[in-house]
């Protein structure tokens, strides 16, 4: 064990020796990884599980930092303020693709260079364990009779819960009080204490709590039941008409500032490709109900554009977009 | 009320400046969401602006009977303020600190820090070149080793 | 039971785990002592090293760093008036005056012993009533956090030494500084004046380093030629008599620490301020007046912030929810090591719980050893000529604020706040309330709005909810009582009684 500590020290001295030579190749020092959501949430879990494998492939440390706030605008903005030298990478979720239509910011992922689209997750609508509702149908019925009474945990405009709510509202009506938290982590904590009535969550954040009986799954946001939560009905059971939006789910991506030299983008892409492909990480993703994607370059851009156009127009249809996707140049799917 | 402490030179001016700052805070707070109370991003900031203004008015009101500083006119008061709180050593040190921050960006951490430590010590200790040089070298080395090697902080 | 004991002793009996805990504790003390280098940062760097290690090795190292780091912040707070971390802000209130009186050695010695006592009480609570405490912590609704923040902001009454209006002004200004940036809820920019740089907000450590460290450095420049104070370094380990004298206080403040630490959303920084306030209110005859080097003012925050460590582990080990940033990283580490740090952790991997408890006890013992050695060298730092010390403080402040985000912006802010702090100090404003505002202002804003939306934005039901729930009622009563004791109303009542 002591050997390992010494080896680590030696390694860091070694990194330094490399760093001091002026013509050293990228990466010559450690890299900052900015996570746009807070600790304990899905994006955070994904970033922290993936990074060790990338570090191995890249041969340097990636120091992770949570910069939550403003539906992730704060974190993304801080990466875009740093020099385009590949030493600051963003660990983001799906939210940036909705900034333009939510009026949160005038940029989205197209203002950055995507390195990897890691995977796509599933959404579960969860409630406290002793909730009076056993499925989403019951919750909807209650909400119809008592509009504006239920407390939904949210993560801000453009956050996953508000997107799901908008989709539900485009085919039904669900009038709730939106209580905003800094991410799904604090939201889950509040739900454990019965301070909110339900919250749409990324499965990667809620999956442990439901089998343990701490939370109750009301519906999975998909067409069929899923293996991870065999007792939770699909949302189409309560809302058949929502099927047109499905499958839908959040995704996680890694990006760097636009204008980063091609060679560096290539190095990073390769390292992340290797990291995501790592068996252990793949197991982590599938265990958490997420579909590994591991997309780079054009394929990543294609995915991002498609996701954006589908979701943005769905929100427009639900009358939840502040600015029409048409006006910000998002084509119809 | 002669037992009240005498106002310091510049104290009233500083407090008035802080009052202006508070008014600025209130204006900026109003800009956030107007008076769209009670649950808007601007609600708490407006409350804070009002608290700042109220407490500063209370401070100024409480001081209205305090004896004025022993100075003639605003110019003299300014001079006395600068004399008391900004003697040459502080002004020069502040200038060196600002220069240090600029140098950091141009020269990088090690040279800038070494220059700053050395020059500041030589100035503050009136000479003692050799001792300053040694302390500078040791301190720069330790800081570099600690931050860069051990904790891997990226330094400018 | 036998299993628990063997898990508990695991770190004690395995030489390499023992060594790692020791290394972690020692490193933690120094990481904690340097402003800008946070325990959070150190653990997140270490996680990347420990990925290939065995999970127990990684946990042992982190427990050490965490314990040492929370304690280490007191070092620079006492010696240089720069709190190494926000949880040591309250330590500087009486610790620094002690160092200025030549008692830096005694102050560090006392704070070490008290930190260990606080830490052990924290672990004790964790080991005995963790599930109960976590259930209690979950009962805290947004409105209760709002009341806690309000309660905390009212501490301004005891932090503002001479003038309450100055204290209130400083706290409100601090809260404004804390709110700068994009709003967490709606992403509206607040107080950014159109600047992209300000959108991410101003890091509170920048304010802390500037207002405490740099402002004090400028003040010290006035006494350049003053002969450095000789530090008394003979009686460093506090006498048993002294420790026993403070034991009742330290138990009370440890309980405060462990509860505040267990609440997800509050941590050692708030705990230590509450503890300081508690000491000031409950100790009628301190060894010296508070703020002028009272031992009680050192004991309270030091026990509370170390007890908060044990508290922070409570929601992590029982629910898999992070109690603070460090435990969030530990959760990440457990995930990487294939463990599911959810509510099933105590059932699926019960050894993690008892291993952590045993490890925390061990780390506290190492803290006692490392904390009490080398004090003489540290105390000598204060004896350095000011002309050498002040430039070094400046460099430390620059590195500390730079390393927060690897950007120069923070460094310029730090210097700016240093100058502002210098001016404010000249005109008798206290720095404590500013930090109080920076820490609690955003918490209060966020929780107020969560509480409001929970009741459908209806002010009436919001106020009603503050008194209809037992927990909220207790907190509301505390707020009202504190408010009354701080305002002229109390004096008015007393006057009427006299008349």
TrEMBL record, chain A:
Signal peptide range in chain numbering: 1-24
Keywords, ordered alphabetically: Receptor, Signal
Keyword check for Transferase: no
Keyword Signal: yes
Gene3D superfamilies: Bordetella uptake gene, domain 1, Periplasmic binding protein-like II
Pfam families membership: TctC
Family: Belongs to the UPF0065 (bug) family.
UniProt-recorded name of the protein: Tripartite-type tricarboxylate transporter receptor subunit TctC
Species: Chromohalobacter marismortui
Automatic annotation (TrEMBL), chain B:
Domain named DUF1468: residues: 15-156
Keyword line: Membrane, Transmembrane, Transmembrane helix
Transmembrane among keywords: yes
Pfam families associated with the record: TctB
Record-annotated membrane-spanning stretches: 12-30, 42-61, 81-100, 106-124, 131-155
Name of the featured protein: Putative tricarboxylic transport membrane protein
Protein's organism: Chromohalobacter marismortui
TrEMBL record, chain C:
Domain DUF112 positions: 18-436
Annotated keywords: Membrane, Transmembrane, Transmembrane helix
Name listed for the protein in its UniProt record: Putative tricarboxylic transport membrane protein
Organism of derivation: Chromohalobacter marismortui
Presence of keyword Signal: no
InterPro entries, per the entry: DUF112_TM (IPR002823)
This protein's record includes keyword Transmembrane helix: yes
Transmembrane spans: 17-39, 107-133, 145-161, 168-187, 202-221, 242-263, 319-340, 352-375, 387-404, 411-440, 460-484
């Amino acid at each position: 064990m002591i050997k390992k500590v010494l080896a680590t020290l030696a390694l860091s001295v070694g990194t330094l020796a490399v760093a001091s030579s002026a013509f050293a190749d990228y990466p010559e020092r450690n890299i900052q990884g900015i996570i746009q959501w807070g600790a304990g949430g899905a994006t955070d879990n994904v970033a922290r599980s993936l990074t060790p494998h990338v570090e191995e492939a890249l041969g340097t440390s990636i120091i992770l930092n949570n910069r939550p706030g403003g539906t992730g605008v704060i974190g993304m903005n801080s990466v875009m303020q740093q020099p385009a030298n590949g030493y600051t990478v963003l660990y983001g979720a799906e939210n940036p693709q909705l900034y333009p239509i939510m009026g949160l910011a005038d940029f989205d992922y197209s203002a950055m260079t995507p390195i990897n689209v890691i995977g796509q997750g599933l959404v579960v609508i969860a409630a406290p364990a002793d909730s009076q509702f056993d499925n989403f149908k019951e919750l909807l019925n209650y909400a119809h009779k008592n509009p504006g009474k239920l407390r939904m945990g949210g993560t801000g405009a453009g956050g996953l819960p508000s997107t799901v709510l908008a989709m539900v509202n485009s085919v039904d009506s669900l009038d709730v009080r939106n209580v905003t938290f800094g991410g799904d982590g604090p939201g889950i904590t509040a739900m454990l204490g019965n301070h909110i009535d339900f919250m749409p969550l990324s499965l990667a954040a809620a999956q442990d709590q439901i089998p343990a009986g701490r939370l109750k799954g009301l519906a999975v946001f998909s067409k069929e039941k899923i293996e991870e939560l065999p007792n939770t009905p699909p949302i189409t059971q309560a809302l058949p008409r929502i099927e047109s939006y499905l499958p839908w789910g959040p995704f996680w991506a890694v990006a760097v500032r636009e204008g980063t030299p091609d060679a560096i983008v290539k190095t990073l892409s390769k390292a992340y490709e290797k990291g995501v492909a790592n068996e252990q990480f793949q197991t982590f993703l599938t265990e958490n109900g997420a579909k590994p994607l591991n997309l780079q370059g054009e394929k990543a851009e294609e995915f991002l554009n498609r996701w954006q156009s589908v979701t943005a127009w769905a929100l427009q249809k639900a009358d939840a977009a502040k600015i029409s996707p048409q006006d910000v140049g998002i084509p119809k799917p | 009320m002669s037992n009240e402490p005498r106002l310091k030179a510049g104290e009233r001016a500083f407090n008035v400046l802080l009052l202006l700052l508070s008014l600025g805070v209130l204006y900026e707070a109003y800009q956030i969401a107007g008076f769209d109370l009670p649950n808007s991003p601007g609600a708490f900031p407006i409350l804070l602006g009002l608290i700042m203004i109220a407490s500063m008015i209370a401070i100024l009101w409480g001081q209205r009977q305090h004896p004025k500083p022993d100075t003639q006119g605003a110019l003299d008061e300014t001079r006395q303020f600068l004399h008391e709180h900004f003697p040459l050593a502080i002004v020069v040190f502040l200038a060196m600190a600002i220069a240090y921050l600029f140098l950091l960006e141009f020269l990088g951490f090690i040279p800038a820090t070494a220059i700053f430590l050395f020059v500041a010590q030589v100035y503050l200790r009136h000479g003692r070149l050799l001792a300053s040089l040694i302390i500078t070298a040791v301190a720069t080395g330790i800081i570099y080793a600690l931050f860069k090697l051990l904790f891997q902080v990226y330094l400018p | 039971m036998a299993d628990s004991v063997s898990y508990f002793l695991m770190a004690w009996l395995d030489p390499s785990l023992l060594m790692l805990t020791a290394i972690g504790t020692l490193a933690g003390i120094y990481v904690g002592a340097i402003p800008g280098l946070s325990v959070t940062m150190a653990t997140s760097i270490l996680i990347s090293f420990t990925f290939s290690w065995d999970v127990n090795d990684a946990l042992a190292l982190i427990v050490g760093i965490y314990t040492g780091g929370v304690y280490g912040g007191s070092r620079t707070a006492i010696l240089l008036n720069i709190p190494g971390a926000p949880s040591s802000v309250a330590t500087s209130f009486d610790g620094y005056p002690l160092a200025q009186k030549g008692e830096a050695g005694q102050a560090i010695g006392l704070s070490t012993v008290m930190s260990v006592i606080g830490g052990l009480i924290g672990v004790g609570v964790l080991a005995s009533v963790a599930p109960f405490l976590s259930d209690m912590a979950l009962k805290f609704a947004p409105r209760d956090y709002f009341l806690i923040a309000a309660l905390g902001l009212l501490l301004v009454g005891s932090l503002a030494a001479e003038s309450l209006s100055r204290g209130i002004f400083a706290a409100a200004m601090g809260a404004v500084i804390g709110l700068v940036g994009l709003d967490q809820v709606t992403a509206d920019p607040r107080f950014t004046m159109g600047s992209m740089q300000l959108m991410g907000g101003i890091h509170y450590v920048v304010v802390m380093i500037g207002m405490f460290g740099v402002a004090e450095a400028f003040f010290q420049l006035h006494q350049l030629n003053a002969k450095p104070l000789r530090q008394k370094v003979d009686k460093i380990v506090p006498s048993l008599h002294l420790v026993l004298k403070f034991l009742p206080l330290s138990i009370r403040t440890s309980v405060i620490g462990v509860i505040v630490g267990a609440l997800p959303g509050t941590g050692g920084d708030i705990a230590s301020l509450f503890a300081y306030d508690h000491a000031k209110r409950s100790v009628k005859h301190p060894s010296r007046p508070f703020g002028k080097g009272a031992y009680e003012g050192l004991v309270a925050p030091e026990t509370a912030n170390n007890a908060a460590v044990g508290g922070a582990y409570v929601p992590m080990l029982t629910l898999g929810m992070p109690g603070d940033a460090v435990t969030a990283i530990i959760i990440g580490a457990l995930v990487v090591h294939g463990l599911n740090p959810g509510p099933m952790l105590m059932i699926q991997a019960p050894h993690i719980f008892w291993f952590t408890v045993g490890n925390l006890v061990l780390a506290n013992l190492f803290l006692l050893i490392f904390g009490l050695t080398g004090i003489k060298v540290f105390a000598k730092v204060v004896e350095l000529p000011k002309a050498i010390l002040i430039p070094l403080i400046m460099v430390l402040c620059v590195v500390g604020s730079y390393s927060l985000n690897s950007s120069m912006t923070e460094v310029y802010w730090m210097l700016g706040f240093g100058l502002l702090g210098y001016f404010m100090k000249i005109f008798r404003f206290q720095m404590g309330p500013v930090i109080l505002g920076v820490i609690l202002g955003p918490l209060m804003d966020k929780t107020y709005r969560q509480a409001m939306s929970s009741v459908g934005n209806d002010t009436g039901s919001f106020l009603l909810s503050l008194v209809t729930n037992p927990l909220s009622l207790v907190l509301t009563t505390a707020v009202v009582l504190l408010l009354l004791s701080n305002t002229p109303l109390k004096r008015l009542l007393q006057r009427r009684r006299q008349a």
